[in-house]
Amino acid sequence: MNCTRRLSFLKAAFIALTAVTLSANNADAQSKGKWVTLFDGKSLNGWHSWQSDKVLPQWKIEDNAIVLSEKGGKDLVTDKEYGDFELELEWKIAEGGNSGIIYHVIEDKKYCCPYSTGPEIQVLDDVKHPDSKAGKNGNHKSGSLYDMIPANDFNAVKPAGEWNKARIVIKGGKGESWLNGKKVVDFPTQGAEWEKLVADSKFKTWEGFGAASKGKIALQDHGDKVSFRNIRIKEL
Protein backbone atom coordinates (compact mmCIF):
# COMPACT_ATOMS: atom_id res chain seq x y z
CA MET A 1 0.00 0.00 0.00
CA ASN A 2 1.51 3.36 -1.00
CA CYS A 3 1.73 6.29 1.41
CA THR A 4 -1.24 8.17 -0.04
CA ARG A 5 -3.55 5.17 0.11
CA ARG A 6 -2.35 4.31 3.61
CA LEU A 7 -3.03 7.83 4.86
CA SER A 8 -6.49 7.71 3.30
CA PHE A 9 -7.17 4.37 4.95
CA LEU A 10 -6.02 5.61 8.37
CA LYS A 11 -8.11 8.75 8.03
CA ALA A 12 -11.20 6.73 7.16
CA ALA A 13 -10.59 4.37 10.08
CA PHE A 14 -10.20 7.30 12.47
CA ILE A 15 -13.44 8.88 11.25
CA ALA A 16 -15.30 5.58 11.66
CA LEU A 17 -13.92 5.06 15.17
CA THR A 18 -14.84 8.61 16.14
CA ALA A 19 -18.38 8.08 14.86
CA VAL A 20 -18.77 4.88 16.91
CA THR A 21 -17.43 6.60 20.04
CA LEU A 22 -19.74 9.60 19.61
CA SER A 23 -22.70 7.29 19.02
CA ALA A 24 -21.92 5.36 22.23
CA ASN A 25 -21.49 8.59 24.19
CA ASN A 26 -24.77 9.94 22.82
CA ALA A 27 -26.55 6.72 23.80
CA ASP A 28 -25.16 6.99 27.33
CA ALA A 29 -26.20 10.64 27.53
CA GLN A 30 -29.71 9.84 26.30
CA SER A 31 -30.09 7.07 28.90
CA LYS A 32 -29.25 9.39 31.77
CA GLY A 33 -32.14 11.07 33.50
CA LYS A 34 -34.66 8.48 32.30
CA TRP A 35 -36.28 5.80 34.42
CA VAL A 36 -35.42 2.26 33.33
CA THR A 37 -37.30 -0.77 34.64
CA LEU A 38 -34.98 -3.36 36.15
CA PHE A 39 -37.73 -5.91 36.75
CA ASP A 40 -40.98 -6.10 34.77
CA GLY A 41 -42.66 -8.67 37.01
CA LYS A 42 -42.23 -11.43 34.45
CA SER A 43 -38.57 -11.95 33.63
CA LEU A 44 -35.21 -11.85 35.39
CA ASN A 45 -33.44 -10.61 32.29
CA GLY A 46 -30.67 -8.22 33.27
CA TRP A 47 -29.89 -10.11 36.49
CA HIS A 48 -27.74 -13.08 37.47
CA SER A 49 -26.67 -14.83 40.64
CA TRP A 50 -23.32 -13.69 42.02
CA GLN A 51 -20.43 -14.98 39.89
CA SER A 52 -22.77 -17.15 37.84
CA ASP A 53 -23.96 -16.92 34.26
CA LYS A 54 -27.58 -17.52 35.28
CA VAL A 55 -30.14 -16.90 38.01
CA LEU A 56 -30.13 -19.79 40.48
CA PRO A 57 -33.52 -21.46 41.12
CA GLN A 58 -33.87 -20.21 44.69
CA TRP A 59 -34.73 -16.83 43.15
CA LYS A 60 -38.29 -17.04 41.81
CA ILE A 61 -40.97 -14.77 40.38
CA GLU A 62 -44.19 -14.80 42.41
CA ASP A 63 -47.07 -12.34 42.13
CA ASN A 64 -44.98 -9.89 40.06
CA ALA A 65 -42.18 -9.91 42.62
CA ILE A 66 -38.67 -11.34 42.79
CA VAL A 67 -38.66 -13.75 45.73
CA LEU A 68 -35.77 -15.52 47.43
CA SER A 69 -37.57 -18.70 48.44
CA GLU A 70 -34.70 -20.27 50.37
CA LYS A 71 -30.98 -19.98 51.02
CA GLY A 72 -28.60 -20.86 48.22
CA GLY A 73 -29.53 -18.49 45.42
CA LYS A 74 -26.51 -16.27 46.09
CA ASP A 75 -26.98 -12.53 45.87
CA LEU A 76 -28.91 -11.43 42.79
CA VAL A 77 -26.76 -8.97 40.81
CA THR A 78 -27.48 -6.63 37.91
CA ASP A 79 -25.66 -7.34 34.67
CA LYS A 80 -24.96 -3.62 34.31
CA GLU A 81 -22.84 -1.30 36.44
CA TYR A 82 -24.09 2.06 37.72
CA GLY A 83 -22.24 5.13 38.97
CA ASP A 84 -24.51 7.99 40.04
CA PHE A 85 -28.12 6.84 40.11
CA GLU A 86 -31.53 6.97 41.73
CA LEU A 87 -33.00 3.56 42.55
CA GLU A 88 -36.56 2.87 43.64
CA LEU A 89 -38.02 -0.45 44.70
CA GLU A 90 -40.33 -2.10 47.19
CA TRP A 91 -39.22 -4.82 49.57
CA LYS A 92 -40.96 -7.21 51.94
CA ILE A 93 -39.08 -9.27 54.51
CA ALA A 94 -40.34 -12.46 56.16
CA GLU A 95 -40.76 -12.59 59.93
CA GLY A 96 -37.33 -12.77 61.55
CA GLY A 97 -35.67 -12.14 58.18
CA ASN A 98 -32.56 -10.31 57.03
CA SER A 99 -31.47 -9.01 53.61
CA GLY A 100 -30.06 -5.87 52.00
CA ILE A 101 -29.65 -3.71 48.92
CA ILE A 102 -25.99 -3.29 47.95
CA TYR A 103 -24.56 -0.81 45.47
CA HIS A 104 -21.24 -0.24 43.62
CA VAL A 105 -20.52 -3.96 43.77
CA ILE A 106 -17.34 -5.18 42.06
CA GLU A 107 -17.88 -8.69 40.74
CA ASP A 108 -14.39 -10.16 40.85
CA LYS A 109 -13.23 -13.65 41.79
CA LYS A 110 -11.02 -12.25 44.54
CA TYR A 111 -14.09 -11.11 46.49
CA CYS A 112 -16.33 -13.55 48.32
CA CYS A 113 -19.55 -11.68 47.91
CA PRO A 114 -21.14 -8.34 46.98
CA TYR A 115 -20.82 -6.89 50.49
CA SER A 116 -17.04 -7.25 50.24
CA THR A 117 -16.97 -4.13 48.08
CA GLY A 118 -20.46 -2.63 48.07
CA PRO A 119 -22.04 -0.62 50.90
CA GLU A 120 -25.44 -1.90 52.00
CA ILE A 121 -28.80 -0.38 52.81
CA GLN A 122 -30.29 -2.70 55.40
CA VAL A 123 -33.46 -4.75 54.91
CA LEU A 124 -34.56 -6.37 58.17
CA ASP A 125 -37.33 -7.45 60.47
CA ASP A 126 -36.32 -4.91 63.12
CA VAL A 127 -38.57 -6.51 65.73
CA LYS A 128 -37.53 -10.16 65.61
CA HIS A 129 -34.13 -10.39 63.94
CA PRO A 130 -31.24 -10.21 66.47
CA ASP A 131 -29.12 -8.10 64.12
CA SER A 132 -31.45 -5.22 64.94
CA LYS A 133 -29.75 -4.97 68.34
CA ALA A 134 -26.20 -5.27 66.98
CA GLY A 135 -23.93 -2.51 65.70
CA LYS A 136 -23.87 1.04 67.06
CA ASN A 137 -26.89 3.20 67.78
CA GLY A 138 -29.14 1.05 65.61
CA ASN A 139 -27.02 1.12 62.47
CA HIS A 140 -28.11 -2.44 61.62
CA LYS A 141 -31.80 -1.51 61.46
CA SER A 142 -33.85 -1.14 58.29
CA GLY A 143 -32.94 1.76 56.01
CA SER A 144 -29.59 2.27 57.72
CA LEU A 145 -26.29 2.43 55.89
CA TYR A 146 -25.30 -0.91 57.35
CA ASP A 147 -22.81 -0.78 60.25
CA MET A 148 -22.09 2.86 59.46
CA ILE A 149 -25.01 5.29 59.91
CA PRO A 150 -28.34 4.44 61.59
CA ALA A 151 -31.67 5.48 60.14
CA ASN A 152 -32.89 8.66 61.81
CA ASP A 153 -36.40 7.24 62.30
CA PHE A 154 -36.77 3.61 63.32
CA ASN A 155 -40.55 3.93 62.96
CA ALA A 156 -40.37 4.62 59.23
CA VAL A 157 -40.23 0.90 58.46
CA LYS A 158 -43.36 -1.24 58.18
CA PRO A 159 -43.61 -4.61 59.98
CA ALA A 160 -42.39 -7.90 58.54
CA GLY A 161 -44.76 -9.19 55.89
CA GLU A 162 -45.68 -5.70 54.64
CA TRP A 163 -44.27 -3.85 51.65
CA ASN A 164 -41.79 -1.03 52.20
CA LYS A 165 -40.78 1.48 49.54
CA ALA A 166 -37.05 2.21 49.39
CA ARG A 167 -35.27 4.93 47.44
CA ILE A 168 -31.49 5.17 47.18
CA VAL A 169 -29.76 8.16 45.60
CA ILE A 170 -26.04 8.24 44.84
CA LYS A 171 -24.79 11.45 43.25
CA GLY A 172 -21.67 13.60 43.32
CA GLY A 173 -19.99 11.89 46.25
CA LYS A 174 -23.11 11.86 48.43
CA GLY A 175 -25.86 9.35 49.13
CA GLU A 176 -29.37 9.21 50.52
CA SER A 177 -31.49 6.36 51.87
CA TRP A 178 -35.26 6.88 51.86
CA LEU A 179 -37.83 4.59 53.45
CA ASN A 180 -41.56 4.91 52.88
CA GLY A 181 -41.28 8.52 51.76
CA LYS A 182 -38.89 9.69 54.47
CA LYS A 183 -35.18 10.38 54.04
CA VAL A 184 -33.64 8.36 56.86
CA VAL A 185 -29.90 8.63 56.08
CA ASP A 186 -27.60 11.19 54.44
CA PHE A 187 -24.08 9.92 53.85
CA PRO A 188 -20.86 10.65 51.97
CA THR A 189 -19.69 8.11 49.40
CA GLN A 190 -16.09 9.28 49.01
CA GLY A 191 -13.48 11.58 50.50
CA ALA A 192 -12.28 12.05 54.07
CA GLU A 193 -15.75 11.73 55.64
CA TRP A 194 -16.33 8.41 53.90
CA GLU A 195 -12.90 7.11 54.87
CA LYS A 196 -13.63 7.94 58.51
CA LEU A 197 -16.94 6.06 58.35
CA VAL A 198 -15.17 2.99 56.97
CA ALA A 199 -12.41 3.25 59.58
CA ASP A 200 -15.01 3.26 62.36
CA SER A 201 -16.89 0.24 60.96
CA LYS A 202 -16.42 -3.52 60.65
CA PHE A 203 -15.14 -2.90 57.12
CA LYS A 204 -12.01 -1.01 58.15
CA THR A 205 -9.62 -3.79 57.08
CA TRP A 206 -11.57 -4.91 54.01
CA GLU A 207 -9.57 -4.23 50.86
CA GLY A 208 -11.70 -2.51 48.22
CA PHE A 209 -14.74 -1.88 50.40
CA GLY A 210 -16.62 1.21 49.26
CA ALA A 211 -13.74 2.24 47.02
CA ALA A 212 -15.47 2.06 43.64
CA SER A 213 -17.43 4.95 42.13
CA LYS A 214 -19.27 2.56 39.83
CA GLY A 215 -20.50 -1.01 40.20
CA LYS A 216 -23.40 -3.43 40.16
CA ILE A 217 -26.48 -3.48 42.38
CA ALA A 218 -27.20 -6.60 44.41
CA LEU A 219 -30.20 -7.97 46.30
CA GLN A 220 -28.88 -10.02 49.18
CA ASP A 221 -29.37 -13.70 49.86
CA HIS A 222 -29.01 -13.80 53.65
CA GLY A 223 -30.87 -17.10 53.81
CA ASP A 224 -34.27 -15.65 54.69
CA LYS A 225 -37.31 -15.19 52.48
CA VAL A 226 -37.42 -11.71 50.98
CA SER A 227 -39.35 -10.16 48.10
CA PHE A 228 -38.64 -7.22 45.79
CA ARG A 229 -40.87 -5.54 43.21
CA ASN A 230 -41.40 -2.34 41.19
CA ILE A 231 -37.65 -1.97 40.66
CA ARG A 232 -36.51 0.93 38.51
CA ILE A 233 -33.39 3.04 38.16
CA LYS A 234 -32.41 6.40 36.73
CA GLU A 235 -28.79 7.16 35.91
CA LEU A 236 -27.79 10.65 37.03
The CATH topology name of the largest domain reads: Jelly Rolls
The amount of beta strand, in percent, is 25-35%
Radius of gyration, in angstroms, nearest whole number: 20 Å
Largest sheet: 8 strands, antiparallel
Helix coverage percent: 10-25%
Order of helices and strands: HEEEEEEEEEEEHEE
Q: What's the structural blueprint in terms of helices and strands?
A:
Elements: H1 3-31, E1 35-37, E2 47-49, E3 59-62, E4 65-68, E5 76-78, E6 85-93, E7 98-105, E8 120-124, E9 164-171, E10 174-179, E11 182-188, H2 191-199, E12 216-219, E13 226-235
Antiparallel strand pairs: 1-13, 2-5, 3-4, 4-13, 5-12, 6-9, 6-13, 7-8, 7-12, 9-10, 10-11
Question: In words, what does this structure look like?
Answer:
The protein has 236 residues and is of the alpha+beta class. The chain folds into 2 domains: 1-31; 36-235, Sandwich (Jelly Rolls). It is 16% helix and 31% strand. The protein is built from 2 helices and 13 strands. It has helices at 3-31, 191-199, and strands at residues 35-37, 47-49, 59-62, 65-68, 76-78, 85-93, 98-105, 120-124, 164-171, 174-179, 182-188, 216-219, 226-235. The strands form 2 sheets. Strands 1, 3, 4, 6, 9, 10, 11 and 13 form an 8-stranded antiparallel beta sheet that branches. Strands 2-5-12-7-8 form a 5-stranded antiparallel beta sheet, with no helix packed on it. It is globular, with a radius of gyration of 20 Å. The termini are far apart. 36% of the residues are buried. The model is unreliable at 17-24 (pLDDT under 50).
